[in-house]
Amino acid sequence: MGKTLFDKIWDNHVVETIDNGPSVLYIDRHFIHEVTSPQAFKGIEERGVELFRPKQTIATADHNVPTLNQHLPIKDELSRMQVEQLINNCAKHGVELYGLGHPYQGIVHVIGPELGITQPGMTIVCGDSHTSTHGAFGAIAFGIGTSEVEMVFASQSVLQTKPKTMRINIEGALQKGVVAKDIILYIIAKISASGATGYFVEYAGSTIRSLSMEARMTICNMSIEMGARGGMIAPDDTCFDYIKGRAFAPKGEAWNDAINQWTQLYSDADAIFDAEINIDANAIEPMITYGTNPGLGIAINGFIPVVETIVDEGERNNIIKALKYMGLESGASLLGMPVQHIFIGSCTNSRIEDLREVAALVKGKKKNSAVQVMIVPGSQQVAKQVNAEGLDLIFAEAGFQIRQAGCSACLGMNEDKIPNGEYCISTSNRNFEGRQGAGARTLLASPLTAAAAAITGVVTDIRSLI
Amino acid sequence: MKALKEIKSQFVPLPMENIDTDQIIPARFLKSTTRDGFGKNLFRDWRYNNNDETNPKPDFALNQSQYKGEILVAGKNFGCGSSREHAAWALQDYGFNAVVSSFFADIFKNNALNNGVLPVTVSDAFLQEIFEQNNTCLLTINVEAQTIKINTTGSTAHFDINLYKKTCLLNGFDDIDFLISRKELIAEFEKKN
Ligand code: SF4
Fold first, then answer.
1. In A94-236, where does DSSP find H-type helix?
2. Cα dihedral A291, A295, A298, A299 sign
3. If you take atom 4 of ligand 1, which residue's CA is the nearest one?
4. Helix (H) or strand (E) holding A388
């Protein structure tokens, strides 16, 4: 029987399997950031062990950094201490840090790929659930907790139970105005926020093959939002072209060797998955969420479910609670609803391609005066590219505020928050209660849908503008 | 990690589905660089009005004195969302040693086990049966036998846990100790690959 892509990489990295227990899985690349690493550093210090392979860990500061005036000391004392502790820990333990002020700083899942650190066939972990992003390169990449960060520090390995595998096949051409974010929001709405729990997902099919690496990253990024351990896509020429020439990509002879290995990374034709789902790309419309988990999404021109018609009691109560928090009505349409904030950023949608799409739409237009628009590039490199291409001028003219790289309003942790009770169309990945700040009401959507609302001030079907 | 063999306790019911880690511990409380003290911010925004500790929400179970104990019983898909281990630390710091639900998110389950908080997965029907008990009812969780019993009715369910994790819990070992003991093997693996 053939092997799945997942199995090939997994088998290559198993050091040992414990009887009736997990496997010791070797980790090629470990990314860390300021929020989930301090307790792990402290842990190994208390145990009196050294970092086993410090060169395979790469650090950045992203979650808890301000996105304005990054050259000044961080005002919030606790945030400053956390970032300083990262600097000290990295220096003490020999870990490379791309911290504030470094040209490589940025959201951990944006910088790994753009620097060419993320490569096909690798195992990659980070103390952040959206580590699944790196799976777009044909890697096994998944989020871990702080105890597991400590495991990697101590042994360059984690203990993992092998997940089941699921393949999601997406075939056909996308409608005009439909982008990667809509594909993944559509899938999550279809299978629910827990529909892939226990599985590692491979995305396949002609639609996926036709997507850019940025788009593939958006899709893999949100795998965790349907409960999956991770998501991945078999590497192909699009992937190899993206990696070639990047700072840490293999060069010369090593490049040829790498390509020889990488081209073996696909699921064999007779490989069997534990579950398989087929999606018709043509059926996908621009999506938006109305509730407080990413599975509560609808087509932008659709209607919120009528709660009385939901048979499952748990789900019905869930939606009633979500609608109450969101201040929305059962059965209503969202089109035309005023919003107060637009957030374009996060590891889901803050890459150069996302910002180019937004710029192309808003060029020569002005934002609606009732909305505030925040654009937060995913990394210093993306910010540099934005300026090089003159997108900053387009955004400035439209009245958008461009900030510096970081997680920003994706999570209500740093200074960027959405005020209590106000609506935000956000290109991030989570609409949980309070995610963007206490009482904030998040509508997840694509960068195009967010940009359309920036212009009109209301929830808008992007297809009416193009 | 301390050993965990049996828990016999009243329980706190939270009959809601999809309780995510942003609710268990909101991001703004993740600035600490130690593992301690997260319990006071457990379910912070569900516990207090306007983030004000002197203004608890009376209808939230953690604020109702009749509910107490080491066991939290919650609706399905508990712990979804962020990988923050702070969620497990907050539950433990508050005093919970087990969480019972009909479905757990993967990362949460690992994080909980790595901290000696036992996730107990039961059927939807059994979960319902627990929710129907009154607040004085005791639950008994036996790690060795992998059973959970509703003491008032005697109704008992079996739960799954892999043998390795079970041995760790019963003995108070943790994965990091195990991996450190495997360093030579890991170094050999590196040479071969
Ligand atoms: S942008 Fe948001 S989801 Fe991505 S790493 Fe940062 S906080 Fe996590």
1. 108-114, 146-155, 180-191, 206-209, 213-221
2. positive
3. A347
4. helix A380-388
Two structure tokens written together for A323: 């609608």
**What is the DSSP code string of chain B?**
-----EEEE-EEEE--S--BHHHHS-GGGTT-SSSSSGGGGTTHHHHBGGG-TTSB-TTSGGG-TT--SSEEEE-SSBTBS---THHHHHHHHHT--EEEES-B-HHHHHHHHHTTPEEEE--HHHHHHHHTS-TT--EEEETTTTEEEETTT--EEE----HHHHHHHHHT--HHHHHHTTHHHHHHHHHH-
Does the global pTM surpass 0.90? yes
How many whole angstroms separate alpha carbon B103 and alpha carbon B120? 9
Yes or no, beta carbons of B84 and A18 under 8 Å apart? no
The two structure tokens encoding residue A77: 């004392």
Distance from B186 to chain A by nearest Cα, in Å? 6
Does A63 contact ligand 1 (Cβ within 6 A)?
Answer: yes
Residues ≥6 apart with Cβ < 8 Å to A411: A63, A430, A435, A436, B22, B27, B82
C-alpha radius of gyration, chain A, whole number: 21
B146 interfaces chain A, CB cutoff of 8 Å: no
Report the C-alpha gap between A413 and B27 in whole angstroms. 5
Size of chain A in residues: 466
The tens digit of pLDDT for each residue in A402-450 reads 999 999 999 989 999 999 999 999 999 999 999 999 999 999 999 999 9
- Indicate whether residue A196 lines ligand 1 (CB < 6 A): no
Backbone region of residue B91 per phi and psi (left: phi > 0; alpha: psi in -120 to 50; beta: other values): alpha
How large a percentage of chain B has pLDDT more than 70? 100
> How many angstroms does the Cα of residue A361 sit away from the middle of ligand 1?
25
* CA nearest to A83, candidates A68, A64, A101: A64
* Nearest residue to B15 (alpha-carbon basis) of B63, B108, B77: B77
Contact B72, B61 (CB under 8 A): no
Q: What residues in A contact B171, CB-CB < 8 Å?
A: none
Contact A382, A105 (CB under 8 A): no
Chain B residue with the nearest C-alpha to that of A319: B17
Task: Report the share of chain A in percent with pLDDT over 90.
Answer: 98
Which ipTM was obtained for this model?
Answer: 0.89
Cβ atoms of A169 and A207 closer than 8 Å: no
Does residue A353 sit in helix, strand or coil? helix
Q: Say if B109 is an interface residue toward chain A (CB within 8 Å).
A: no
Q: How far is A410 from A345, CA to CA, in rounded Å?
A: 8
Which residues does chain A have within 8 Å of residue B22's beta carbon, measured at their own beta carbons? 411, 430, 432-435
